[in-house]
Specification:
Length: about 350
């Protein structure tokens, strides 16, 4: 260990390679690369806050943070990493884990699916194309269906408490509802209302449609920090055990299927481009958050409100890509990663 730290002190930002299939990185290298990413990307002005949810249009567009959580629970945070922003679609991952935990991965496959839609997150066309199937819990249709599946069926208050407890276990601290966001989204979610009732028509809503939609809207309106999302991602990367609190948030057998869902559709219609260029399964939300899961290595998150046309934060994408590429981390490169002090 001492020897590796010494070598890396000589080459502070290059990755120490033991051989072609091994990649040893120090924590200080990671910190340095995260700082570089922050400095380079901070003043990027591309993208635009989501405005179809009025509350999101008014969030300070210059907020920007990057967080990493390692498998030993160590966290690295730069920028606005304690700012609670709307979790939005990133919450689809948390609730997908919850229903996989309650029903098992196979049942979720049968009741919702695990396919990419290749279409925007709120597509109604995708439901029709898939012959009534919501495709995946990580698009709006599948996420509303997932909320309908949360047990106990029929009891909105208990379902909500279960959803929040699950998110708390995953991220290690309780998320707070952003009431104004919830009101703003509830008043304008006409497209999602159509989705809920179309799913009802096809028998893919497993509880009251309006209640299921309300739970979905509420979970999207939870405030979360990039630090909390990095810890969630690290919990998934760590086989269900939260590396900070040591709480077992879900069974380890679910880590692979949930990560595969994230890889398949985490960036909606840009999921292929993302995996090709960033090499990390990641889930985005229109609130500007992204969380990435590098199995056995780390969770990473970034947050900046301006998004691109597919609803993915421009700066958060750039930051995660920068860090992955500089550290030569890639879920497909077959390299064993060793992180040392
Ligand atoms: N609550 C948002 C919606 O349903 C989430 C979309 C997203 O973050 O991609 O439109």
């Amino acid at each position: 260990m001492g020897r590796i730290v010494h070598c890396c002190a000589i080459l502070p930002i290059s990755v120490k390679k033991q051989n072609d299939m091994s990649n040893t990185i120090t924590v200080s290298q990671i910190k340095e690369i995260v700082q570089q990413a922050y400095n380079e990307i901070k003043s990027n002005t591309s993208g635009k806050n989501a405005d179809y949810i009025p509350f999101l249009a008014n969030i300070d567009k210059d907020l920007f943070g990057i967080s990493i959580c390692l498998m030993n629970g160590q966290t690295i945070n730069i920028g606005d990493t304690n700012y609670a922003f709307g979790i939005e679609s990133v919450s689809k991952v948390h609730t997908a884990i919850l229903i996989m935990q309650q029903y098992g991965a196979q049942k979720v496959l049968e009741m919702i699916g695990a396919d990419a839609t290749g279409l925007p997150f709120n597509s109604i066309f995708a439901i029709l194309l898939e012959n009534d199937h919501p495709s995946t819990p990580l698009v709006n249709a599948g996420a509303i269906s997932a909320c309908s599946m949360v047990q106990p069926i029929g009891d909105s208050d208990k379902k909500w408490a279960t959803i929040v407890k699950n998110i708390t276990d995953l991220c290690g601290s309780a998320p707070q509802l952003i009431d104004e966001l919830y009101k703003s989204e509830s008043a304008t979610n006409f497209n999602n209302r159509s989705i809920a009732w179309l799913l009802k028509n096809y028998g893919r809503i497993y509880d009251d449609p309006d209640m299921s939609l309300d739970l979905y809207t509420r979970q999207c309106s939870l405030g979360i920090t990039s630090n909390q999302l990095a810890i969630t991602a690290a919990t998934i990367a760590n086989g269900g055990i939260n590396p900070v609190t040591k709480v077992q948030a879900f069974n380890k057998e679910l880590a692979a299927p949930i990560t595969s869902l994230i890889a398949t559709v985490g960036f909606y219609e840009h999921s292929g481009d993302w995996m090709y260029t960033a090499g990390i399964p990641a889930k985005t939300g229109v609130g500007g958050g992204i969380m990435g899961v590098l199995p056995g290595v780390m969770g990473i998150s970034s947050f900046a409100p301006p998004i691109d046309s597919a609803g993915n934060s421009v700066k958060a994408q750039l930051a995660i890509k920068y860090i992955m590429n500089k550290l030569e981390l890639n879920v497909f490169n077959g390299k064993q990663v060793h992180i040392v002090d």
